[in-house]
Amino acid sequence: MQGADADTVADALASDDALPGAGGFAGELDGTLVRDVLGRYPLFVERAVSDEARLDPGQWSHDPTALADPRSFPAGHIRNESGTQQRWSLPSLDPFGDRETAIETVGETVETSIDAVDTDSLAIAFSGGVDSALLAARLDAPLYVAGFPDSHDIEAARSAAELLGTEVRVVELTHDAIERAVPEIARATARTNAMDVQIALPLYLVAERVAGDGFDRLALGQGADELFGGYAKVAKAPEDPRVEADTVRGAQREVIASLPDQLERDVLALRAAGVEPVTPLLHDRVIGAALRLDGDLLVDGETRKVALRAAARESLPDEIADRDKKAAQYGSLAARELDRLARQAGYKRRMDDHVTQYVESLVE
What we know:
- Keywords: ATP-binding, Ligase, Nucleotide-binding.
- Its EC number is 6.3.5.4.
- Residues 55-88 are annotated as: Disordered.
- InterPro entries: Asn_synthase (IPR001962), Asn_Synthetase (IPR050795), Rossmann-like_a/b/a_fold (IPR014729).
- The protein is an alpha/beta fold.
- The protein has two domains: 2-86, no CATH class; 99-335, 3-Layer(aba) Sandwich (Rossmann fold).
- The protein has 16 helices and 15 strands.
- It has helices at 6-15, 99-115, 130-138, 152-163, 175-189, 194-212, 224-228, 232-235, 248-256, 259-273, 284-290, 306-312, 318-321, 328-331, 334-344, 354-363; strands spanning 2-3, 25-29, 32-35, 44-46, 60-61, 70-72, 77-80, 83-86, 122-125, 143-147, 168-172, 217-219, 276-278, 299-300, 303-304.
- The strands form four sheets. A five-stranded antiparallel β-sheet has the order 1-2-3-7-8, with helices on one face. The protein has a five-stranded parallel β-sheet with strand order 11-10-9-12-13, sandwiched between helices.
- It starts with a strand and ends with a helix.
């Protein structure tokens, strides 16, 4: 079992509690295969084995490369002698009674989760935004950022580190590093589509450097955008065609539901680079608080992650708490430069999904 201890998982099974007070789990418990509601740990089964058939020990794994033809075991599901079935779903929780209580609770749950992190052999992936800055302000661990020399993320990380009175170690990306890393990421994650590879690139290359410097755990601010309303498509609901929900709160739940697929990719890429991810903002207590936020505590006008930013001011300078950031693949310029390499290799933009074709050529 990865993640929560056996007693916590057993209690979750007995009570059907989707948020039993853990940071996720996946594996086997007393003959039952389990994966938490947000899929915070990867789990795979052989594709050829039907959902009703008995699973032998060699037919499931946390690592897709250990199986002949793996498929992801769905988050929130269990598998036992009765077959595969959904056991947990994301709970619907009543909103907080007032704004002050909501912000205070968000602050307490975030701080408690971060402060509980063991800093032994730990480094922090640091972009200079509010999510990773909360980790940096409360954990005694070195900070790392990846990007091309003229990237937004390097500038933002340096300025935020200065405001926090510390320093950040810069992993400067190069075309050679990208060409080497792309097939390694694709094999580890079993994904070659352009978006997945672009997102994983800066994480993977930071993790490689962190592992090379002697650390084996990497703390990340993952989950904050999904939980607290950090995406434009959530802010623009229901007008944004990228979400089906007709309210901001509904759009929040919709993007939270995308986390299992994203986390699977990121965990596998980071492990392939030699580190284990640590994600305190994805603890059950933080998820529970986020699900109770009204829409105006997620998005208010042009401001996103309203409650998280308000709570963060207890730990961070206002300049960081209020700061917007770019997605890592864009802020690091990894996406731009992967596109450039694809075009230089003859995969022009007029071609269908030209970057994915380039990635597949590197894997081959």
